[in-house]
Amino acid sequence: MAAMNVRTQARLWYFQRVSAMVLALFVAVHIGIVVYAVRGGLSGAEILARTHGSIAFAFFYGVFVLACAVHVPIGLLRIAQEWLRWRGPSAVAAALAFAVLLAVMGLRAVYGVVA
Amino acid sequence: MMRRNDVRARNHPAYWAFLVHRLSGLALALFLPVHFWALGQAIAGEQALDGFLRFADRPLFKFAEWGLVVLLSLHLMGGLRLLVIEFAPWTHLRKDWLAVGLGVGACTGLAFLLALLR
Q1: Which of A23, A44, A77, B101 could disulfide-link to B77, CB 3.0 to 4.6 Å?
Q2: Using an 8 Å Cβ cutoff, are A72 and A23 in contact?
Q3: Closest residue of chain B to A107, computed from CA coordinates
Q4: CB contact, 8 Å: A20 with chain B?
């Protein structure tokens, strides 16, 4: 991470770890839900019957999406730096754009199944 | 200059753990936008969502879903291992954690497979 100052690197590391702690809990629950939901095949009616109007579902998956939007781009930035030698402001801008993409698409999906 | 690992480092179980964690993370990162797009079909109504689910109801997609669930569980266990290494005072269980992670991944894969068959 040559092009990035130490403070930013430390901050990214911190965000990555804190989001990981949150995600650990959410992913464990999500895997349980996935295995439960997939029994007997998936149907739109079956999914929406569970999610439609559910505040708990909206809250759980809303927070889940936001934690992903923090966690995933930092990991991708690392991979870009180490494997593609892609560093500097353009890599950071691409990671930020991916964060926004995940947050918008993810919250849109949550809205889609809850509203 | 970035240092490169030699063969000895790459033969260490921790290197394989790193590789699994990175590749699973990469695959999951690329899958997420597709996942969100697919669920976003629900905005257009139940029929649109059903249309996609029917399209995805074929062996190749089921295999991919199974693979993603296994990767998610491996990434979860690999991440917990890193958090333990960085934040917890415990030692001596780092290699055990690799074995437990593999075991949890295998169990998750079997559970998903069983659920698919029901």
Answers
A1: B101
A2: no
A3: B36
A4: yes
* Residue A27 buriedness (CB in 10 A; 0-12 / 13-18 / 19+): buried
Pick from A35, A101, A112: which is nearest to B40 by CB?
A: A112
Domains along the sequence of chain A with CATH: 6-114 (1.20.1300.10)
This prediction's pTM: 0.92
Q: Closest chain B residue to A78 measured between Cα atoms?
A: B22
CA B58 remoteness from chain centre: 21
Read off the pLDDT of residues B62-116 as tens digits, 9 standing for 90 and up. Answer: 999 999 999 999 999 999 999 999 998 887 767 788 899 999 999 999 999 999 8
The domains of chain B, with CATH numbers, are 7-117 (1.20.1300.10)
Other CB atoms within 10 Å distance of the CB of residue B7: 6
